Structures are given as C-alpha cells and as structure tokens.
Amino acid sequence: MPRGQSTLLTELKSLVAAIEVSARANDSVMLKAHLKELVAWARQLILRVPLSSSTLAVENAGLKRRLRASKISFDSMISAYKAILDAFETFRGTVDLVQQTKRLEELPATLDAIRRLRTLHTLHVVLDHDLFEQRIPKGVGRASAAMIRERLKQFSPSPHAPRLFLGEVRHIEKPGFFLGLDEDPPSGSCFIFALGHKYVHSKIIGVVAAYDPNPRRYAPDKATDFLSHFCDILACTLITALEHAQLEELTVRDGLTGVNNRTYLERHAGRILDFAARKKLPVHLLFIDLNGFKAVNDTLGHEAGDAILVAVARALQAMIRKYDILVRLGGDEFVILLPDTDKHMARAFVTRLRQTLASLDVGQVCSLDTDLRISASVGLSRHQPPQSLESLIKAADQNMYEDKTHAKEGPAGDHAAFIPKTAPPPARTAHKYD
C-alpha cells in the first residue's frame, strides 16, 4: 500500500480510538466533533484507495463496526441524558407545586396534582392533629401526636431518616393508616417518609406515603435522594402555611370571645351578598346589643362582664350554621349575617336567640351569687341589592335602637336589660335552624 494511504489509515485508527474515549467519557461535544472528522477522513480514504484492495476492505469493515459501536454508545448516552433532563423537569414541577401551596386548604389539590404528575397510584399525608388542630383540610389524614409516634415505632430506629420504609406493604403493620385507605392492601409496595418540623429538631409533624399495586415500584434498594428533598420542602411548606393561618386568625378573631371580628365580616360578606344577589336569595343581618351591660360591669366587675361576653358569644356560635357569619363588633355588640334566610326564618331565629340568652345562668357563668339574667335588643335588616354591607349594618343598627326603645317603654322585665330572675327562664329550644 502506498505510504500516503498507510498514513491515512493510521490517522483514521487514531481518530476512531479518540471517538471511543469520548464515548466512554460521555463527552457529547467531543464525540460529535470526532464523528464529523471521521466521516471526512472516510470520504478521503474512499477517493484515494482503490476499492479492489483487500486490505482496504478489511480496514473499512473494521471501521464500520467500530463506527456502529460508537454510534450505539452515543445514542445510549443521549438517551440517558434525556432521561436525566426529564427526571429533573418532573422534580422541578413537583417542587413548584409544593412551593405554590400557601394555605393548608390548598394541600389536597396539591397532593392530587403531584400524584398525577408523577403517575402515583396513591399519595397521602397524615398530619399531627395536636399541632395543626382544626386547620387540617378534608382529604388529608389526621392523628394525634401520640398515635403517630405509636405507628412509627415499627420503623424505629430508622437508619435512613426521614426515610421510614421502602418496600412491600406486607411488611408493614397497619399500612392503611399511612396510605389513607379504609382497608390494608393485600399486596403492592409503598414508601413512607417522616415530615420533620423545620424549627424543632427531631419533632415529626406527620408522614407522607405513596402506594402502588406493583410490588417492585418502591423497592428497598432504590435511591431516595429526591424523596428526602421533597419531604423536606413539603414539611417546611406545611409549617409556613400553619404560621400563615395562625397569623391570619389573629387579624380576624376577637381576642376575648374567640369569634370573628369586623375584619372577617368585611373580608367575606361582600362575596356572600354578591352571590345572593345573583341567585336572588334573601339575606338578613342581625345587630345584637346586650341591654344594661355597663351596669353589669359596674356592679359585678369587668371580669364578670368578660365572662358574660364569652358565654354569649359561645351561645350565639352554637346557634348558627356553618355558612352564617357571627362577629363581635366591639363592646357588647354582635352581628350575625344569615344568607339564604327569609323574613320568617330570621324572625324565628331572633326569638330563639332571645330565649337562648335568657336561659344563660349569669351566676354560674361569673361564679358569683347573682340573680341577673341576660337580655338583648336585636335589630333585623334585609339586604336590598346593590346595598353595601355598611348600609346593611346601619339599617340593622337603627332597627336595634327602635327595639331597645320599644322594650324600655314596655312592661318591666320584658327583655330590656339584665334583670332579676323573677321567673324561670323560657325553655331552651334547638339552636340549629334550616
């Protein structure tokens, strides 16, 4: 073979070797460059060396085999690279969904979105009821701190905290508790991770678990770096949402009685009034003022007055429906907004309200020896669209003063003030109304 051709073949062999090195190193940039150079050299070889040469045929076949092997390696590397990108995008999407959750009531929708994104059969969270109290939304599991600790004993001590379990459900005691299932699944696999408190070391605020009927979906030998990071982010998000809820409650709750305040009414009443106007549903508002309350403070003391306000607030709260709004405006004044309530229902409610307040035992409430009982003046107004909330309250307030004036002019002991119990109070009627 002429010297030029031999040199050309030697250079081609070096180039193929470089391709193999690039492929093993997963260096896609250099691999592409070497492949392009190889194609160019192959074309030169074909032009300069006669096709009848047996040596060239052997060399060419070898080069083709190595080229195919390099291409297979390159394609495999590209596929792995794409898989990594897909996994990263899914991970980022999952984290985004969690971090977009600002309120605890959004948690069920977030979990469902994550379940669909990651094609999970079941994704469930159980939260510490003692920590989150009544703020845990429907669709999210709840259990006392003691119950969670008792259920987690089967995994302790865990060598992969917060990883508690990864494997077949048959190895778990009561898996339905973690998975939110009424019955324990007979087969399949699951993962269970602890959710830690971001401020309190080693405190568990709940657990997150996923289930799949495939017994190999969550095998014990699988890497769990993503799950650990996901659990950390989810736990931090839940505590942040809890703090947000607690802070928000401070701004809309009356500090003494625990019922909502005027801020809450102004925040939510507009939506209720607009909906009622569109659906042509009646809405009534009650303005409630306790009679003679200043005299009670002066006679029994402010501590007794506060105790009475708390008792009144609890009694009123027990009467209303879930979608009614009770607020304390301040002092001894309360407002109740009654959506989808006509005139007859509203008047019946006022009658029951008077009876309920009259039935409260002031002596028992205040832990004092007194024969006083509670009464209130009540103003009732119906919303007339597009009447504003402020106007609706003023109308009820005006009607309340008329009620108070009428009561003062009526027989003593009617419902005008805190008065001696000259007769047993009326029988207490049912609080809820339809």
UniProtKB/TrEMBL annotation:
**Which Gene Ontology molecular-function terms are recorded?**
diguanylate cyclase activity
| Location of the GGDEF domain | 281-422
Provide the top EC class. Answer: transferase
Q: Which SMART domains match?
A: GGDEF
Query: Which Enzyme Commission number(s) are on file for it?
Result: 2.7.7.65
Q: Which InterPro entries match?
A: Diguanylate_Cyclase, DUF484, GAF-like_dom_sf, GGDEF_dom, Nucleotide_cyclase, Rev_trsase/Diguanyl_cyclase
Region Disordered, as annotated, extends over 405-434
Q: Please report a single Pfam family linked to this protein.
A: GGDEF
Q: Which reaction does it catalyse?
A: 2 GTP = 3',3'-c-di-GMP + 2 diphosphate
Q: Which NCBIfam families match?
A: GGDEF
Write down what this protein is called.
diguanylate cyclase
